[in-house]
Amino acid sequence: MILLIPYLSRIKLLEQQQSTSTKKKVDLRRLFTLAKSERLLIGIGTIFLLISSAAPIAQTYYFGKVVDDAIISSSMRLVTINVLIIFGINVVGAITSFFRAWLFELAGQ
User: 30 in a domain, yes or no?
Assistant: First the structure.
């Protein structure tokens, strides 16, 4: 217990310093006014974010269609078409993810 006394006094000093400092008012309105010049970049980046987030959802849907068509269909034509659709979805998701990261990085600089 005696060994803890210096640490307790440091904690009390830290608490006193934190209580004396004034906290600035931070809200969304102030954040939006600070980011006003980057509004276009953030908006376009958000659109790319939504598209890149929807890509895995569409991918799982079409993967289910691949499995269903492989079991039900006698020809592999539908399976091939759905696999090419999945490939396209992955390409679109990768491109939109790149532009999302690039635009948010530009907005943050």
Answer: no
